[in-house]
Design goal:
Blueprint lengths: L2 E6 L3 H11 L5 E7 L2 H11 L3 E4 L8 H11 L4 E6 L4 H10 L3 E4 L4 H12 L4 E2 L1 H14 L7 H4 L2 H11 L4 H8 L3 H15 L4 H10 L6
Parallel strand pairs: 1-2, 1-3, 3-4, 4-5, 5-6
Helix pairs in contact: 2-3, 3-4, 8-10, 8-11, 9-10
Amino acid sequence: MKIRILLADDHKIIREGLKALIEKQADMEVAAEAQDGMTTIKLAQKIQPHIIIMDIGMPEMNGIEATRQIISENGNVKIIALSMHSDRRFVLEMLKAGASGYLLKDSAFEELVTAIHTIMSNQPYLSPKVTDIVVKEYLHSLPKNESNVFNILTVREREVLQLLAEGKSTKQIASTLNLSVKTVETHRQQIMDKLEIRSVAELTKYAIREGITSL
C-alpha cells in the first residue's frame, strides 16, 4: 500500500514541484492538494491521508491552527511542517500543535523522503537547524535549581560514590583515588549526610538511578 500524502501549500508552484518529485517514489502518492488551511482540514477528513505536508503561512487558516484541528480529530494522521520559517516561535508552536516533523524549505528533497519514512515508522523527524532550536528551548526550560547528584555532590564525592556502588572497599577506593583511608571515610559520611542515605545498599540504588554507575 502506498503512502497517501496531502500537500498543503498556498503556492501552486511548490505543490506541483513536490508532487512531481513525490510521485517518482514507488511507495508514495499525492492523494490531494490544498491551497489554504480550511481546505486542508476538509480534505484530511475526506481522504484520510497518512501524511500531510503542511506549510505554515497559508490564507484563511494558518498551518499551525490547521494542524491543531486535524490532530484533535484524527490522531493517526502524521503532519510534517515544511516551512521557510526557522524562527523558534513557529517551530515550537507547530510541534505543540501535534506535528511529527519540521523541515525547512531549503532542505533537499531527499531529506523530505527520509522524513516521511521516519515518521511513518512512528519516529519524529526534525531538520538539523530545527533540532538545534528545540534542544536550546529544552535546555532553557530546565529548572535552574533542580536537585540532582551533579549539583548536590562534589566531583570527588561522586567519584567515591561510584566506587562504593561498584562494591569497592574503603582501602581499594583510597588506593584508586590516591587518598588516605580516613579521607575516604570522611567523603562517605559527607555523601550519606548530603543524600540522607544511611546504607551502602541504598547508596548503590541511588548511584544507579542517577546514572553514576550501571548494574
